[in-house]
Amino acid sequence: MTSASAPGKVILFGEHAVVHGRPALAVPVTQVHVDVEIRDSSRAGIWLHAPGIYLHAELSKLPRTNALRTVIENVFRSLGMVAAPSLKVTVKSSIPVASGLGSGAAVAVAVTRALSSHLGYPLSDEQVNALAFEAEKLHHGTPSGIDNTVITYSRPVYFIKNQPIETFNVGSPFTIVIGDTGISAPTRESVGDVRKLWEADKAKWETVFNQIREIVQAAKNAIESGKWPKLGPLMDENHALLQQMTVSSPELDRLVLAAKTSGAIGAKLSGGGRGGNMIALVHDSDAEKVADALKAAGAKNSIITKIENI
Ligand code: PMV
Fold first, then answer.
1. Domain end marker among 113, 131, 166
2. Is 147 considered catalytic here?
3. What HEC string does 64-99 produce?
4. Under 8 Å CB-to-CB from 87, ≥6 apart: which residues?
5. Among 125, 147, 201, 292, which one carries the catalytic annotation?
6. I want to staple 36 with a disulfide (CB 3.0 to 4.6 A). Which of 21, 110, 212, 214 is the partner?
């Protein structure tokens, strides 16, 4: 038996602008994860079990576009395997689907690692990341690659599309509360809508993306130098720009407001927007209060997580 796990992730700053070449900051969230187990089987074929999504099927019976099928077939292809072995693949996940916590990328990373190790040819981080990026394209259309990168390396990442991976140091740990609207919103659509805005007025949106780049830069400096309370106003500014980009929603705005009025230092949506998650920066002593306020304001779930070097 071979097993592998992958964490969830949140984007702290820079979503959407990152698709347009600006930097973004993302961190792993280890409270939620995907766990994969692979066993040799006496039954012919590759049997997939993902109880969370009620999937119990043989690989070749799934649609060719199925994400899990694509991930597994990509591993076989990259290992140069022609005949499929007989295996039982079990995928369990505590990461909510389509909510901005990176569930698709985490499944791809954990399955790729477990499968390549089980077959005796463990892939390098770079290879795992490249295969997970292929899988991300199925979910997102034109992803920047930030999700698969932060999840593969499981480290805080300062990410610029098509650039070598750069991790960053957390000078002093800090706490964020993640609030889930419970609304699943396809990132592909919000990314497409931002692209349409940009196409209609490139000068305006280039300026907005540049403002976000400044925010990301300031946030990275604050995190590295241990001055994390400075992130609060930067989150508020980044959220206002995301609102302008039309990727917030009444539910996200309600949670952001609830976080702020219950003591958060700053708050913003995180990820693709229009639903999914928001994050709030808190003093440790306020974390429970803010988490409760988010639930009272309609959050389906909240997670308190410490951002620190892993
Ligand atoms: O919805 P998520 O958390 O997977 O984040 C998407 C982040 C975007 O910047 C909106 C898209 C991307 O590919 O970077």
1. 166
2. yes
3. CCCHHHHHHHHHHHHCCCCCCCCEEEEEEECCCCCC
4. 38, 39, 40, 41, 46, 47, 115, 118
5. 147
6. 110
Short-list 238, 232, 245, 235, CA closest to 274: 245
Q: What mean pLDDT comes out for the span 180-194? A: 91
Q: Report the nearest atom of ligand 1 relative to the CA of 24.
A: 9
212 lines ligand 1 (CB under 6 A): no
| CATH at 294 | 3.30.70.890
Let me know whether 8 and 149 are in one domain: yes
Q: Is the CB of 272 under 6 A from ligand 1?
A: yes
pLDDT in tens, 96-105: 887 789 999 9
- Give the number of the atom of ligand 1 that is nearest the alpha carbon of residue 147: 4
166, 182, 201: which is the final residue of a domain?
166
- Centre of ligand 1 to C-alpha 58, Å, is 31
CATH number, domain containing residue 84: 3.30.230.10
CA of 147 to the centre of ligand 1 (A): 7
Q: How many domains does the chain have?
A: 2
Q: Which of ligand 1's atoms lies nearest the C-alpha of 276?
A: 1
Q: What is the pLDDT of residue 75?
A: 95
Percentage, residues of the chain above pLDDT 90? 89
Distance 143 CA to ligand 1 centre (A): 7
Q: Residue 97 half-sphere exposure, CB side, CA atoms within 13 Å?
A: 8
